[in-house]
Write a structure and sequence with these properties.
Elements lengths: L1 E5 L3 H12 L3 E5 L3 H8 L10 H10 L3 E4 L2 H7 L2 E4 L14 H13 L4 E5 L7 H16 L5 E5 L9 H6 L4 E4 L4 H14 L9 E4 L1 H32 L3 H9 L20 H14 L5 H13 L2 H10 L7 E5 L14 H11 L3 E5 L4 H11 L2 H4 L2 E3 L12 E4 L11 H7 L4 E4 L6 H6 L3 E3 L10
Length: 455
Amino acid sequence: MKITIIGTGYVGLVTGACLAELGNDVFCLDVDQKKIDLLNNGGIPIHEPGLEEVVARNRAAGRLQFSTDVAASVAHGTLQFIAVGTPPDEDGSADLQYVLAAARNIGAHMTEFKVIVDKSTVPVGTADRVKAAVQAELDARGVDAKFSVASNPEFLKEGAAVEDFMRPDRIVIGCDSTPEGQKAHGLMKKLYTPFNRNHERTFWMDVRSAEFTKYAANAMLATRISFMNELANLADQVGVDIEAVRHGIGSDPRIGHSFLYAGAGYGGSCFPKDVQALERTARQYDQDLLILRAVEAVNDKQKLVLGQKVVKRFGADLQGKHFAIWGLAFKPNTDDMREAPARVLIRQLIDAGATVAVYDPVAMPEAKRVLQLDLSADELARVRFASSPMDTLSDAEALVIVTEWKAFRSPDFDRIKAALKQAVIFDGRNLFEPEVMAEAGFEYHGIGRSILTRA
């Protein structure tokens, strides 16, 4: 099938590459000429395991192309996937300017039937706005071309997006009941047939329900994270090990183990903005989502916990003190620094007078970019970007772990202890066991790991 993908960010690039991998003829459009040049020269603008190989293989096979040519992109695909960004607006709602701009471009150039698929995460009712934008352009041109707007939200995890796309646990598709919608249903069914050979993974529903499903899923996952983080903070006060609690409740099949890990708060491009956008939608209908307001408040508070633990241990005035930080991306296997807890921690330590040495296996270039936005030149001078995890430790009072990269799970504790001025570790992701840390001679501060474990 001939498919056009509008937008080459996480969702668009993964979607386009994976659909090409299945034998489709995919045209990826982006308005960013630098990004298109990078892709056409064999580069990848994001870090996503396995993606570079899939892109290279399908470019070489002629099934995947990248361009800024809007007219060519509209002419190419019967299926037009809109996969552009929907960043939060000032009031917390999803900013649909890029989605609607893509819709207008389609309407301004189409001459025959198209299925316009909202792949971006968008609020309920967006399909109606996309339909109106396309129709307005067709009317202005006097063109009587038929089309349908469908919803096909993505459920990709950064760091595992290729695997998630190629082996989905569910495919959600919303189509309307018009003749054009039924035609769209048939084309979407044909597109996703390869994913349903073993068993049916597609959930068909109306368009608005499909739009809502994406927000509901992310809101539920964010709620589980904030719930466990709030319990972890209480566990620290009452002498409870939150890891033991996690195993105890996760064994209940009604609860399960996923997204029950206490930590330094969630970040990234999805959970923060989607929770806000769903709250905003509720307010538009005079509804107050009390749970989601609490989820967001708990997460904002949780990002401060690591810094507060450092201050409690070393004092509010950190002048002359230096700290090592492992992990900057909001999660492993990505270089995404959006809403990353490490940014909050660095700000806390700098404000308290400390200096820091930081390291991330993948996100160093992106971290340098975003920290230039977060910090003044004088503040940035107090951040050293280290060349390795061990390089961060020299003259550091303590090690602070913010992201649970696999490379951090089994370090040389003897080397760490020898390099640090004090054998203190703040573990924002509970990578280590307090008993093991005590035996190794460390003072260990986890998240909800009961009584402080000292050497």
